[in-house]
Prior knowledge:
Chain A is mainly α. Helix content of chain A is 91%, strand content 0%.
Amino acid sequence: MEMESAQLFAMAIAAGLGVLGPAIGIGMIGGKAMEAIGRNPEASDKIATNMILAIVFAEALGILALVIAFIIRFV
Amino acid sequence: MAFARQGDRSPPGPHFVYITLLCYTISMTGVLAHIGSFLNTVLGTQIAHAAEEGAEYGSSMHVVLKAEQIGSLFGFPITNSLVMTLMATSILIGFALYFRKKIGMIPGKLQAGVEMLFEGVLDFMTETLESEKLARVFFPLIMTVFLFLLVANELAFVPGVGSIYIEYMGTDIPFLRAPAADLNVTLALAIIAFMVIEIAGIAVLGFFKYAKKYVNFSSPINFVVGIIELISNTGRLISFSFRLFGSIFAGEVLIIVALFFAAYLVPVPLIAFEVFIGFIQAVVFSMLILFFIKLSIMEPHGDKAH
Lengths: 75, 306
């Protein structure tokens, strides 16, 4: 395989697989947060803040994968 | 003391406190920009150098990982993201100077809005840190980071950013680039955040008590937990800087790719989404500093049963 095509494959795989985990994580966080708000609607402000915080932590991993994909492709 | 003169007439009300804080905030923003330019010079990252070779066989889309140099001043390189950083800073300073003149005891619309924002943030910080004194100590920094990132991120959607080109060393280079799409800027902010978090812990708890969180010989499990905490603390530098850099840079690339495939209509909702992302990232960055400060000023585990 040529270098450039290998790079394209590597970028696609890195971005695609790297985003998979955080996607599942964010889905679970959002779902659980909705469940919690349903159980206790008064605490929705606090839950929403913490939910965004947790989502950001999960999202950081996806973004890390994306940055690596960019580095593979453009560096 | 700028407000001492005015304070002679009447006792300093809450307005004076906010104005001092705002000035404080603005002056610190200037410091940030300078640190950014300094880091640009000192920490020319590995990525930065490698990108140059990569750009040659890249596609027709102009996607470059590092901020490009568009000139130099006294031997210091001036990059396109530095120009934008200075623009964001000067907008904030200009707004502060304009706002300072308009302040009255009866707030207008603008003043009411700014006061509402500041009061809301201060209330939230007081609630989180459980102490108004500490909240007032950390408020200037956190508000600075928030305002700076907000202005910097939203400024990237002004027409002309990324489309006005300038010639330097024989190549065409975009004159402006979103500040947070440069790893140097985000790394500078991350280092500031890291230092503040650690120093806050030492200042509030005392050196030995703070060190006990990380080096703890009371039991093997506590020792391992301390080491893990130490590593995760250092890892914050990476996660802080790459989160902001990654999301802003990825947003830019997303818009460029969308423009490349279908111009005019498709990128519009994406741009709207990126405007939202820029705001969220500014909130998240400042909120994370606040939460980590809260974590580091908490009493170490095992001292008290809670």
